[in-house]
From TrEMBL:
Protein name as it appears in the record: Peptidase A1 domain-containing protein
Organism: Blepharisma stoltei
Location of the Peptidase A1 domain: 59-365
Signal peptide annotation: 1-15
This protein's UniProt keywords: Aspartyl protease, Disulfide bond, Hydrolase, Protease, Signal
Domain of life from the UniProt record: Eukaryota
Alphabetical GO biological process terms: proteolysis
InterPro entries on file: Aspartic_peptidase_A1, Aspartic_peptidase_AS, PEPTIDASE_A1, Peptidase_aspartic_dom_sf
PANTHER family linked: BETA-SITE APP-CLEAVING ENZYME, ISOFORM A-RELATED (PTHR47966)
Entry GO MF terms: aspartic-type endopeptidase activity
Similarity section: Belongs to the peptidase A1 family.
Active site (record annotation): D77, D260
SUPFAM superfamilies from the UniProt entry: Acid proteases
Length: 368
């Protein structure tokens, strides 16, 4: 299982903050369990998060809530919208294994109490809405509403390293209309640009992965920016043109793509992915045939984005060698999503991704 850690170091200038990320692997068995357990969020639910993706890849880092600050680590997820942490009132086993929020210990706490329920693959996590001061990346953000969770069922949250989740999608998919945490930064003038960007290094053991709040870092891409308008302000959903594999077209029309940092791989409906994988063929577990596999080309905003096998094959460290797994995974996403794919970390490693809320668009540039 790879896990991403947000360091405490950051550079702030002109309302832009740059946060370096690094990642840690766990055991091969835990990594492979992802493929057996994958449960994607039900895309027509209000705030659904795939537990298995958090088992596999977690962008997480420190925040604090309250005065004085109470520290937490949270997943940064562009595929959900709610900020939540465990409550000190929680009696689930997972809450005893993580930091919990104690409203009585904060002088800036404001009671809300609205019931909150977030649907997951194995049951709902429940709690209520609270309001307090958020500290994130050196910024003090006032009057932030968040979920104070009193029930975290199942074993997944027990094993999860982060305490909670910080969603970075749109308010339209937020439970009970809670504003996403990032929007507070912009509205309170803490960042000058209503946008953020994720850069992931191509090598899992290589330092340099970065989350930038309030813009993007021009040194992390080749400058060939292409901006694609959002199809809807829900998930980071855009229209997608043709898909070809080794020059062979995938049949279908009306393709769409979701850019999601909370999904490790390249996940789509079986209608699309089964065609892709039929052309790709078998990916050797010992990685011996990577160079012989075809390139997958995706058209986004009129530009063709190539994914060679080195990009879409997931190479998992296994002692002194690697285990290779095809990153294209089929999972039917729900009614109306038959022509949709989720472009997760494997795509974002290849193309620096800019999430521009201010202009309702996605920016893509070849990552350096």
């Amino acid at each position: 299982m790879k896990i991403f850690v947000l360091s405490l170091f950051f550079i702030a200038a002109l309302g832009v903050i740059e946060i370096p990320l690094s990642h840690i692997y766990k055991t091969e068995e835990e990594q492979y369990a992802y493929f057996k357990l994958i449960q994607l969020r039900r895309l027509f639910g209000a705030s659904n998060v795939p537990l298995s993706n958090y088992l596999d890849a977690q962008y997480y880092g420190p925040i604090s809530i309250g005065t004085p600050p109470q520290p937490f680590t949270v997943v940064f997820d562009s595929g959900s919208s709610v900020l939540w942490v465990p409550s000190s009132k929680c009696t689930s086993l997972a809450c005893y294994m993580h930091n919990t929020y104690n409203s009585a210990a904060s002088s800036t706490y404001v009671k809300n109490g609205t019931a909150l329920s977030l649907e997951y693959g194995k049951g709902a996590c429940t709690g209520f809405v609270s309001q307090d001061t958020l500290t994130w990346g050196g910024f003090t953000v006032k009057n932030v509403q968040f979920g104070e969770m009193t029930s975290l069922p199942g074993s997944t949250w027990v094993d999860s390293k982060p305490d909670g989740i910080l969603g970075m999608a749109w308010i339209s998919i937020s439970a009970d209309g809670l504003p996403p945490a990032f929007t507070y930064l912009y509205k309170q003038g803490l960042v000058t640009n209503n946008s953020f960007a994720f850069y992931l290094t191509k090598n899992a053991n290589q330092a340099g992965s970065t989350l930038t709040l309030g813009g993007y870092n021009s040194t992390l891409s080749k400058g060939d920016w292409n901006y694609i308008p959002l199809y809807k302000q829900e998930w980071w959903l855009i229209q997608m043109g043709a898909i070809t594999v080794g020059g062979k077209a995938i049949s279908g029309t009306g393709f769409k793509a979701i850019l999601d940092t909370g999904t490790s791989l390249l996940v789509g409906s079986s209608k699309i992915v089964n065609q892709i994988n039929a052309i790709i063929g078998t990916v050797a577990e010992d990685c011996s045939n990577i160079s012989k596999l075809p390139t997958v080309n995706i058209v986004l905003g009129g530009v063709t984005y190539a994914m060679p096998p080195s990009a879409y094959v997931w190479q998992i460290p296994n002692g002194n060698t690697y285990q290779c797994i095809n990153g294209w995974q089929a999972d039917d996403l729900g009614v109306g999503m038959e022509n949709t794919v989720i472009l997760g970390d494997l795509f974002i490693r290849t193309y620096y991704t800019y999430f521009d809320m201010g202009n309702s668009r996605i920016g893509l540039s070849t990552a350096v």
